[in-house]
């Protein structure tokens, strides 16, 4: 059984064995939820895999990129990704990442989300995650431990959804356009341009794009720009450089888009994320070196 915080470092073969051991243990664990803290180095990549449990993947520190067949989702600090059971996904670390995952049985409670989504982590959920990782894992919990895990489960459906997903269309031509845009995002892409490239009328394009992604092109484009901006802002790059590199005519235009999508200016958002991360680190305490194995 995992003990304390897992630290994933070493060569590819060793890390692969460590992941396989962890996943096997998860499949055998009992109880409605299991909380596992993990430390990953910058650039670490977890290959495609899936669980029989749903996963609430919380980035305490650092930015995480989750990729599935349905699209890509970015998980910055103070957020989490809900990954339903059985969904194939890979995970990429953008910067050193302190991850806190809660693995939940699909039928643990009624009302759990049934789709992929990024959610904001509330102060209450912060505290519950911190406490849950200190509890014995993989067994039925009673008393205080059972109450903590029970409240954590019931808070999951109440977490606010955030627009940090980037679903891709199922149509290969539309998906190819989206991949090219992600490689070189710009706020100036228009519906008419994209419709012309794929040989569709404006009306047919807008209907097909919304049906296949659940988003308008304008909203999708803004979220793609956020994907490009957040890791650079997290690394401390100046807002002006990021905004101009993404093709915005002015910094205020970029800030307006950012505030509309995430509810705070870039500087305020990143400051809040850093403060939350430092606070969680202090609450969690130092990592235990013996926990580098499963």
From TrEMBL:
Single GO MF descriptor? sequence-specific DNA binding
**Pfam families linked to this entry:** AraC_binding, HTH_18
- Domain (HTH araC/xylS-type) spans 172-272
Q: Which PROSITE patterns match?
A: HTH_ARAC_FAMILY_2
SMART domains listed in its UniProt record: HTH_ARAC
- InterPro entries cross-referenced by the UniProt entry: AraC-bd, Homeodomain-like_sf, HTH_AraC, RmlC-like_jellyroll, RmlC_Cupin_sf
**Which portions of the sequence form the region Disordered?**
274-294
Give the UniProt keywords, A-Z.
DNA-binding, Repressor, Transcription, Transcription regulation
* Highest taxon, organism lineage: Bacteria
Q: What CDD domains does the entry give?
A: cupin_NimR-like_N (cd06124)
PANTHER family per the record? HTH-TYPE TRANSCRIPTIONAL REGULATOR NIMR, TRANSCRIPTIONAL REGULATOR-RELATED
Name listed for the protein in its UniProt record: AraC family transcriptional regulator
Instruction: Give the originating organism.
Output: Mesorhizobium waimense
């Amino acid at each position: 059984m995992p003990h304390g915080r897992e630290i994933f470092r070493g060569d590819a073969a060793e890390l692969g064995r460590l992941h396989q051991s962890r996943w096997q243990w998860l499949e055998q664990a009992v109880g409605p939820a299991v909380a596992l803290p993990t430390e990953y180095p910058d650039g670490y990549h977890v290959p495609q895999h899936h669980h029989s449990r749903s996963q609430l993947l919380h980035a305490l520190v650092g930015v995480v990129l989750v990729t599935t067949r349905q699209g890509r989702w970015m998980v910055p600090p103070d957020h989490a990704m809900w990954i339903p059971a059985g969904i194939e996904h890979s995970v990429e670390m953008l910067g050193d990442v302190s991850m806190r995952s809660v693995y939940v049985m699909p039928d643990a409670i009624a009302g759990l989300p049934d789709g992929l989504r990024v959610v904001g982590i509330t102060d209450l959920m912060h505290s519950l995650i911190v406490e849950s990782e200190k509890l014995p894992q993989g067994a039925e919990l009673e008393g205080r431990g059972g109450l903590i895990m029970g409240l954590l489960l019931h808070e999951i459906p109440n977490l606010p959804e955030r627009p940090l997903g980037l679903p891709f269309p199922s149509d290969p031509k539309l998906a190819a356009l989206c991949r090219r845009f992600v490689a070189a995002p710009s706020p100036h892409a228009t519906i008419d341009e994209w419709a012309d490239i794929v040989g569709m009328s404006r009306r047919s394009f807008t209907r097909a794009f919304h049906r296949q992604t659940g988003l308008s092109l304008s909203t999708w484009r803004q979220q793609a720009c956020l994907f490009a901006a957040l890791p650079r802002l997290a690394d401390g790059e100046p807002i002006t450089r990021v905004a101009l590199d993404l093709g915005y005519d002015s910094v205020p235009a970029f800030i307006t888009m950012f505030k509309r999508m995430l509810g705070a200016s870039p500087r305020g958002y990143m400051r809040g994320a850093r403060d939350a991360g430092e606070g969680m680190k202090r609450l969690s305490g130092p990592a235990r070196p013996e926990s580098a194995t499963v």
